[in-house]
Records
---
Amino acid sequence: MRIAPTPLAGVHLVEPEPVPDARGFFARLVCADSFAAHGMVADFPQCSVSWNRAAATLRGLHWQAAPHAEAKLVRCTRGAIFDVAVDLRPNSSSYRRWVARELTAENRLALYIPAGCAHGFLTLSDDTEVFYQISAPHMPDAARGLRWDDPDIGIDWPTTPAVMSERDAALPGWADAMGQG
């Protein structure tokens, strides 16, 4: 696998390197030693999946507050997503900046998002499934969120979301979100 940094400190693109044979191929997506060499967590005690019926479905931007902060490794296993990370770490060189990558079932890329970053995605096709490996169990009381279209962040989404939860539609902007904990 190849691990490539993004413009956001600690956010990496993980690209499997398939080894083909007559059956198809085999590729690693997580290696504790390789992840550690890049300052990444490789212990994922929780895995989750989200299925999204329609294109232009938005999920996010979410994170968990300390001491329950979580790193995520996100991969699209069916369809396509515009996957976004926003740096919320005040001491980070990329504080208040965002990065996005298109993850598809075909490109098999994964985005590693460290603790202290918000995460969200917009589906680019119908019938999209996303697989998350998460470094900490979900703690509802630590759940936080940031409005997807906050002008203080200025994410350049590929299209306007058509479907989102009531919770995500009501998330606060940057100033109020940072007061959440």
---
Amino acid sequence: MSLFNWLRTKKPGLDSAQQKRLEQLRKPTALGDGSLRSQRWVVVDLETSGLNLNRDQVLSIGAVVIEDGAVDFSQLFERTLQRADTKLSPSVLIHGLGPSAIAAGSDPAEALLDFMEFVGDSPLLAFHAPFDQHMLCRALKDSLGYRLTHPFLDVADIAPLLCPDAQIREAGLDDWINHFNLHVGERHHASADALATAELMLILFSRARQQQIYTPHALQERLSQWKRRKHAPSF
């Protein structure tokens, strides 16, 4: 084996149909100057085998769509991924995905292709997005050889940005749900958590418009400025 071959990244073993679907995935678009209401947003939540960014795996993906100022219940996504030899952490007691559910799950490549076709060119939203983004990027690279470049905004940052009087900047999703008295049913399953995050985001979009933030690009810019101020050294 040559040194060049040894250094090359191993490509996932996709069949011809999967490779064709991969090549036909839509390219992401940058957040633009259309209205927040007209933008199609995909709100995603993952359940994983644990919290280790480099070792644990995505077990399930849940997503809902916000479009035209509302959750579009005709556009829902949920997949459990089949994982062999996955060691489950105590988090299985929370999300309820045991060995039998994982064994009956979808082929990871198929599930991830389904998800990216569902996303299309839309931006993504998640609560504590850096974790979901990292885990999703890893899964897509490992199973498809695909590099995720979609805009990915963190609702956990957007909430305190737009609601500074709430005084719960390090809050979890449940804290914000309680703050706004949202009536949420099931929790700690990927699709249910995505829906809860979407319901919160609808309130935050309304708050954004009240603060003269009218476009996805403006929201992204305001969020970037807020994060820079938050992490700036104080003298």
---
Amino acid sequence: MGKTGVITLSVVDDDRMLTEGLAAWLHKIPDVRLTWWTATVTELLRTEPAPSDVVLLDLLLADGSDPMDNLRALVRLRRRVLVVSVVTSGDMARRVVEAGAGGYLTKDHDLAALVAKVREVAKEEVALSRELALGWLADRDGDRPVLSPQERAVLLAYASGMTLTAAARSAGVQPGTAKNYLERVKDKYRKAGRPAYTKLELADRVREDGLAT
């Protein structure tokens, strides 16, 4: 989020009607501003004047590009991404969040719900609709916590043997922020019934949950 408190939003979607409707609706929303729109990720990275706070990414684009490749291209640049799609699958939501997306929302939601999720992603929270979150949990053993991309990045760096300072540098955040992420990760594992208090225990959770793959 910018210093003004306004969240800037770029959209990658070839649905012109949706994008124009969103642009018109956002004129009434003081804290979210649409700053760029393209039909492909390649075009976004080539033409965007400045990186926005959040990228709204349609999962299935008309150019036939691979959805996960599109997402990874943005995640590698440390972009916060909210994926939107007509695909109503808890498994798909799990896949995109594990690949680094900040959230997943199906297109059957209204614009108010979309903006609410944009705000969550901007705050580095994991943004899922209630229905998808419940579907995801139903498909899991229930003991694997949902980590935000930032929490996961710090966890992977720290559990690999780095110091907290080095892990923070690797994740592109300040040491104090990295410490907060680690505390949140530990709290999530504790609530999942799999407490991890030391670096070795965190490394065990990374291995058990296949987070490094």
---
Amino acid sequence: MTGTVWGGKRAEASPAKGKSGHAAEDQDALDLAADWADICQGLKKDLGPQLFNQWIRPIQLGAFNKDSGTLELFLPTEFSANWVADRFADRLTLAWKIARDVRHVRISAQPGRRAMPDLRLARDNTPTRPAPVLGDSGRVHGHATEGASAATDTLALASIGLDPSLTFPTFVTGTSNVLAFNAAQRMAALEAPQFSPLYLKAATGQGKTHLMHAIGHAFLANHPRARIFYCSAERFMVEFVQALRQNQMIEFKSRLRGFDLLLVDDIQFIIGKASAQEELLYTIDALLAEGKRLVFAADRSPQALDGVEQRLLSRLSMGLVADIIPADIELRRSVLEHRLARFTSVDVPGDVIEFLARTINRNVRELVGGLNKLIAYAQLTGQAVCLQLAEEQLTDILSANRKRITIDEIQRTVCQFYRVDRQEMSSKRRARAVVRPRQVAMYLSKVLTPRSYPEIGRKFGGRDHSTVIHAVRLIEDLRTRDADIDGDVRSLLRQLES
């Protein structure tokens, strides 16, 4: 019997006689999961899909103690656990009370989750951290011994929040990010920068976090004994709240102000936290007064941070605000080619690279993820990478990135470009001056729309799908050996995608 949690309690399943303890535990777990599925249905209806997907869906069921009536619920991070506990604890407790005999719901971060960098003090009141240094070869060296293992070095970097793979040499530059890249290098240089703080502004997946990690690596290479800390705004708030609750604010202030380089990512998440904002403001003032370096990153400019007091806004924007605009197609090609250098055993044709660069245009992270997925699939299945495989395996990414271009729009643009009448797209005329534009329009319809070959054929005067396939393959071939045709197609692509 399933029943909903909003209507009454679920009938408890009784283990049959002779069942083992493990079987009974398994049945309890199944019942608990079924109850949670019912609760989720009710919460999704009450909260709406956006709130539900962001905060409730990530919840994992923990143990249920029947004696105390306590159920444990886990979330991926401390921040999300605190958020859900503050806003939804009563609602969750009520729902579980209706579903079964749950008297208390305990909400916490998932045990065994990846630990965040620690800010605890050493006995001499200096911030604790390993002191790794980047050697000339790019390998990370520890101070303990020259022969320290790479695993130990990587662990040392992780303890201060830096990803060893995110360095300046692995960052691909173009016109859209060169200002931010140069400013980041200047921030990490031996000599003091002309500006501080540096504020990196970019949409998701455009490289601002990569640059922050790269600054940390280069700064450590140039200043081996420097004290550095990278954290997210979420981590800053968690540390701040913990210090406040434990009456350790003096130690917290001392820790933060002891660093030579402070990197705070996703600063937009500090919106509305008045006390945390005030502490961050004082920390900025203290570090700047001592000539320390600060880097912030966010998905919007300082002036667009609603809920942030004016004094903090002025501090965030007093140095240099460096925008990283969405990558243009040239940079997207460069990113793919740079990434492809890691996979020397895999052959990815140029038309696939061009297709990915043109189609996955929302952010660089999705672009690299799409290439990784395509290569992994080809390696695991033994298939060759081709345009058809890319279209089949990257359907979700491609559909999310594609501009909604219609076949009618393509036909209209092609007719204007080649100066032919629109009716020629559906006519039976086979004059070369008409056939070639028609074939180009069919090719673009396949490249820029999710329509199938038969659907495209119907839009071109009811032509058979084999005619469309022939046109697409012909234009693909002509682009490789006819510079004029390739130039025409590139011009049309720019017009249609702009």
